[in-house]
Design a protein that fits this description.
six-stranded mixed β-sheet; 24 strands; Rossmann fold; seven-stranded mixed β-sheet; Deoxyribonuclease I, Chain A; alpha+beta; elongated; about 30% helix
């Protein structure tokens, strides 16, 4: 039914209800309906309206108002006034007996006024008492001399309905835009099934999103899942019969629990603690599906946070720490540079949901700059980790290599993705700022380390390289395609300034000295250079962070 027709029918239906408000005899029938609209008051004689509804003809009293309606609308109104009210329906009866149904009737009745005030209670009483009535017969039992209908409020209700329908239409478009894979089901032998419940931290909900996973035993965790989303008042647990059967046939299933529109919400409704969840829950449900659909991807960031220098004036660490922590807390894997021991302790304390690995460059423990890698504990597990020094003797602690002014390190870690079971080799480093030979040799050393990693394992190398694109250290890293600049690989998805250096004074155009390099089956969904500010509007560091949303290429998931 077109929206305009739906709104018209709604208007006519409420008009009919307004006419029919009443209770049981012996109270006299209502005689007049006063319609309020845009400051006007239109009196309608109910006896004349009854006569017109039962025996349609030209009516002298109603003629001026009826002529305002088009022929189709007049016919709709006559039909509504004459037709029986199916109050014996089991569905209607259950609705009226429920708390939610009563609230709905009362809300609709608030658009009406009787001589005693709000028509909601009268409407509820009428619908609960009368089971075999037409609108016209109810008209004769109205216990008040006149009724008032607020069409302005009704119009506002219609506009809200229109807005909700448009919102639903847009949300459905977004839902249809989710990446879906065509599947072909092949009947197979049943296998034992494993079940696991886990939480997925999401930004749009206070608590982690509950996920139920079913998959066949006897093999590695699945790379691809069938996604099940319960309906209004449902739950992931209710889908266990379907999920377990699919899983036993070789199809792993992931079921999402939607807070606010699940079985807990219905219990709250029945107990009178909340109203009926409706269209307003759709945006959050769509976000649930979007984050689950994107669960194979994660947010990775490199950020030189500037060491804790007491001579930095207004830009000292104490004035910047809140902005830095807030930003990195929203990522999944973070490589930080220029981190002193005090800064490290602060970040660790304020990020309890993260674990990390990283040692000091001076002594391999706590002395000097750290280049730690942080990772979200709910998403990743560290399988291996280590540190090497950027020198001709990479295993020797505290060595300043070649012409470097200071010892430099590279922190590396192997992370297991708990969602996809993929392994990732992650490296975080900081090249020397003065030694030109050291930067080139550091690039060659890091390139060799990457090439030593198992084929098929995605590798990410990030950090402050103190070199521009196309410079000798940069070329040493990308030589023979060993590594690829993620900024170029994700060029069509790049956002942000063309610089990663500000010196606390302003962006230096074209000075990109921080980089992320990738190798292997990696899909870059977004590449961003961010520009975070403190609460005073100052730069959060003298460098800008780089964030990349990355996932393993689906075409390569089975090539381990």
């Amino acid at each position: 039914m077109p929206l305009s027709q739906s709104l018209r029918t709604l208007t006519h239906g409420l008009l009919a209800v307004a006419i029919s408000l009443g209770s049981v005899p012996p109270s006299p029938a209502a005689e007049q309906l006063l319609v309020r609209f845009s400051g006007l008051e239109l009196p309608l004689d109910l006896n004349e309206l009854e006569s017109w509804a039962l025996r349609p003809k030209v009516n002298a009293e109603l003629g001026p108002w009826l002529n305002l309606l088009d022929p189709a609308t007049r016919q709709d109104l006559q039909r509504i006034l004459r037709q029986p009210l199916n109050l014996e329906s089991s569905t209607i009866a259950l609705l009226l007996e429920s708390w939610a149904g009563r609230q709905l009737v009362l809300q609709l009745g608030s658009l009406l006024r009787s001589a005693d005030g709000d028509g909601g209670p009268l409407l509820l009483d009428l619908l609960q008492r009368r089971r075999n009535s037409t609108v016209v017969s109810l008209l004769k039992e109205a216990p008040t001399s006149h009724l008032e209908l607020d069409l302005d409020a009704l119009s506002a209700l219609g506009f809200r309905l229109r807005g909700q329908l448009e919102q639903q239409k847009n949300l459905l478009k977004e839902l249809n835009a989710l990446r879906l894979m065509p599947l072909s089901f092949v009947r197979s032998r049943r296998r034992p099934v494993r079940h696991q419940r886990q939480g997925l931290a999401v930004e749009h909900r206070t608590d982690p999103l509950a996920l139920d996973l079913w998959w066949p035993t006897g093999g590695a965790p699945a790379k691809r899942w069938l996604l099940i989303s319960h309906g209004l008042g449902g739950s992931a647990a209710q889908m266990e019969w379907l999920a377990s059967e699919l899983a036993s046939r070789g199809w792993p299933v992931l079921a999402v629990q939607h807070p606010g529109s699940d079985d807990a919400a219905v219990r709250g409704l029945l107990e009178g603690r909340q109203t009926l969840p409706g269209l307003e829950t759709l945006p959050a449900r769509l976000q649930d599906l979007q984050v689950v659909e994107a669960a194979g991807s994660f947010k990775l960031m490199t950020y030189n946070i500037r060491y804790d220098n007491p001579r930095d004036g207004r830009d000292v660490w104490a004035n910047r720490v809140d902005a830095v922590v807030e930003l990195v807390s929203k990522q999944d894997v973070i490589g930080l540079q220029e981190v002193t021991l005090g800064q490290l302790k602060t970040v660790v304390k304020r990020l309890p949901e993260f674990d990390f690995y990283g040692v000091g460059r001076d002594d391999g423990r706590s002395g000097g700059e750290h280049a730690p890698v942080f990772f979200r504990k709910s998403r990743f597990e560290a399988m291996d980790q280590g540190t090497f020094w950027l020198s001709a003797r990479p295993e020797q602690i505290g060595v300043a290599g070649w012409d470097a002014s200071l010892p430099r390190i590279c922190t590396w870690i192997v992370l297991k993705d708990k969602v996809t079971d993929d392994r990732w080799w992650i490296a975080n480093t900081h090249f020397d700022h003065r030694g030109s030979v050291a930067r080139v040799e550091s690039g060659r050393l890091l390139r060799r380390k990457v090439l030593d990693q198992p084929k098929g394992v995605p590798a990410v190398v990030m950090g402050d390289f103190n070199c521009l694109p196309g410079s000798p250290p940069y070329l040493a890293l990308v030589e023979d395609g060993a590594l690829t600049d993620a900024r170029l690989a994700g060029k069509d998805k790049f956002v942000g300034p063309e610089s990663t250096w500000n010196g606390f004074r302003g962006l230096a155009a074209g000075r990109i000295i921080d980089h992320i390099f990738v190798r292997g089956p990696i899909m870059i969904e977004q590449f961003s250079i961010l520009d975070p500010k403190t609460s005073q509007g100052r730069y959060a560091s003298d460098h800008l962070p780089i964030r990349m949303i990355v996932a393993r290429k689906p075409s390569d998931v089975n090539k381990n």
